[in-house]
Amino acid sequence: MSRRTAPPPHGRLLKAPENFLPADFRLDVTKDGLNDERRGFLRKSFASAAAAMAAGAGITGAARAQSATSAGEDAILKLPPHSKGLGQPVAARPYGLPSQHEQNLQRRESPGLTRVSASSVSFCPLQGLFGIITPSGLHFERHHQGWWDIDPSQHRLMVMGLVKRPMVFTMDELMRLPSVSRMHFIECGANSGMEWGNVAVPTVQYTHGMLSCCEYTGVRLSTLLDMAGFDRKQGKYILAEGADGAGLTRTINIENALDDVLVAWGMNGEMLRPENGYPLRLVVPGVQGVSWVKYLRRIEVGDQPWDTREEALHYVDLMPDGVHRQYSSIQECKSVITTPSGGQVLLDRGFYNVSGLAWSGRGKIRRVDVSFDGGNNWRTARLETPVLDKCLTRFNIDWVWDGKPAILQSRAIDSTGYVQPQMRQLRAVRGTRSIYHNNAIQSWRVAETGEVFNVQVS
Amino acid sequence: MSRRTAPPPHGRLLKAPENFLPADFRLDVTKDGLNDERRGFLRKSFASAAAAMAAGAGITGAARAQSATSAGEDAILKLPPHSKGLGQPVAARPYGLPSQHEQNLQRRESPGLTRVSASSVSFCPLQGLFGIITPSGLHFERHHQGWWDIDPSQHRLMVMGLVKRPMVFTMDELMRLPSVSRMHFIECGANSGMEWGNVAVPTVQYTHGMLSCCEYTGVRLSTLLDMAGFDRKQGKYILAEGADGAGLTRTINIENALDDVLVAWGMNGEMLRPENGYPLRLVVPGVQGVSWVKYLRRIEVGDQPWDTREEALHYVDLMPDGVHRQYSSIQECKSVITTPSGGQVLLDRGFYNVSGLAWSGRGKIRRVDVSFDGGNNWRTARLETPVLDKCLTRFNIDWVWDGKPAILQSRAIDSTGYVQPQMRQLRAVRGTRSIYHNNAIQSWRVAETGEVFNVQVS
């Protein structure tokens, strides 16, 4: 595995290969002050404590623990510097950052995916994230001609086309309008696209990392269309256009536009990040990311689809008979186990919390089932709340690993009753050249060594 | 107003005083290419368009708009550099940051509040935030002896006291246990404390900024207590202790501990930030922030409260008769309008989206009412979803400012039926020296100039 493959952060399931993580992530014998003899003693304590614990709490093989009367007091009483000294003052960092011990958790470009990095993808490190909110600094990126930090005082949004009153808004004007806040996932239509052709990308960062989830704040597009007096009889589509060099344009049905589409400036409590379209982007819940036009500068109302470059030449699904599916915009129900996932290594046998994400562009997640034997038997996972419309849902399930090979899968069911398909079911209908809209069940194989691999199960 | 008073970011309601904001935030005539004559023309277009708009959309005096056939085309067709060139590549910033135009939105220390900045507070800039999620980089800080970036591989948590099996956990061991993710607010017990004594702090950052809201991930404290086999008959309280120099200790009722208390490592999708207790903190939903012990290293089960320094000498409420309320931990139902708020300036008359936050340590927010005349008349605000237990709730309400002085207030009602009190109601019971647990209605006075001030309404 190349060093470019993103390792998970400290403390997750893994035992890091020696050459894989920076020194900060490795347990240093000289640091914890334990020699090998002492370690041997502790290991025995762990084993007996774990057995007692399992009996008491009903969690078989759960976390090992030491006797508090031996190593515990030892660890507590030898006070480290941070327990004795004066730390950093408040506002030492007026805008805070992650711990220096978490620097390995980054968004990463897939090398060679595109010829120019300004028209490429950086993937979100799902293997190291918790809950449903994606930290804005780790949100995946997909640029068509690079990103800019646009001066908001200069930015304008025009609403035109089949409207009575064409309008141009400044940011100040937009932000005075009635606003709403909503949590939604955003997924690139090409997420997991390599799997169509049986390319088993090693980690969940690269298989599913064109996925993020944020709380967005903005004005409903329907409010702007109402203000401009759009033609309700003729106006069947809108065109959204970005202000960056790509001049990205996408057609959106008027039904969507009037439903839950937002013209958003806020993301996770603050203004959008430059990489995500600062100061203004379209939020099109449930629809593939390319339609969430960044640096939004123009909304045009029309009476037919525009068939722009990014909907005629790209973002079309090539079917087995050579025909393209066009405007196949909705991200269907999908899920993936993020921990454990490809590239991680199980520490040892015993209890694990298996965790993952589920989502659907058509509504809420109703249920997630997990299999540990490649799809023969399924158990229902716990869903964390809130479970929201067109939003990521976090699931967790208990698992005791017996040290034998296992194949882990998750299968989501959404509020419409749609069940996430197997890869072979999708291929039977759509062939192997679609690139876009792969929502198949993902399989992770756990080897006897504890190593986890991306595999395709026939 | 001092320069230390945090101004809101670009694009909010304000017209920035000339000496208040960096150059980036001011409209520059040479930048937008409009001379004064042209500006005059546009102003007239705005006025007529706004009238038409108001008639069409039912939003009186809403955002001004220009005619698309004049200034609109002008603005769109003169392409700025970002519409022509190649931007920054993906992963140019493997961990992203806010726009350079938002640098003014910071957490800020209140000068002189404490003698040492390592034992002080930095306030969250609520006036510039949206929705309910607080960006981790802007989370308020309260340290008792400064913050540290602790090496997680060296950190341990001990569970001891009235338990059958005292245990010590590594981070790896904790993170294998069944985990949950929950969104909760955290508020310092002293938030809005200056208002008890009628000190009208100028901005909402300084009145209410010891408040944040995140998605936390961790293991339930009850899981750990079960594993350790705690004494259900004798064990009535737990003690939580931090590993930093302050050695902060707080007593928590066993009822809370077994209910929704978490031992958390995750915050807003990633590991806790060092300023917020990395790698482990207690999350005690609904209870004042001091009990959310950071750098958590020890949980002890006992049969009576510990009466530690931070619960005997501090974090007690001094009543009019000289008696202290002790263990008054719950943060009662409260709300505040964040936009417009003290220090902001309304651009002009007309339509505004008035926005704020509501929360209760006892449950969910049922309703928020807003008054624009100092409490004589009330209208019910829109609540954004999700509305969650012991979590911030965002509210919005339409307002047309007629240019006359106004006093804005919000009043929250929680799921227990409790109604947020007026300041005089609180003072009648608790006097003026409590410091802690002020949950009174906040009043903002809008002057004819559009300036907004913190005032106390009798």
Automatic annotation (TrEMBL), chains A, B:
Residues 333-442 form the Moybdenum cofactor oxidoreductase dimerisation domain. PROSITE patterns: TAT. GO terms for molecular function: sulfite dehydrogenase activity. Keywords: Metal-binding, Molybdenum, Oxidoreductase. Pfam families: Mo-co_dimer, Oxidored_molyb. InterPro entries: Ig_E-set, MoCF_OxRdtse_dimer, Mopterin_OxRdtase_euk, OxRdtase_Mopterin-bd_dom, OxRdtase_Mopterin-bd_sf, Sulfite_DH_SoxC, TAT_signal. Residues 80-112 are annotated as: Disordered. Its EC number is 1.8.2.1. Residues 148-307 form the Oxidoreductase molybdopterin-binding domain. Its cofactor is Mo-molybdopterin. This is Sulfite dehydrogenase. It comes from Piscinibacterium candidicorallinum. The gene is soxC.
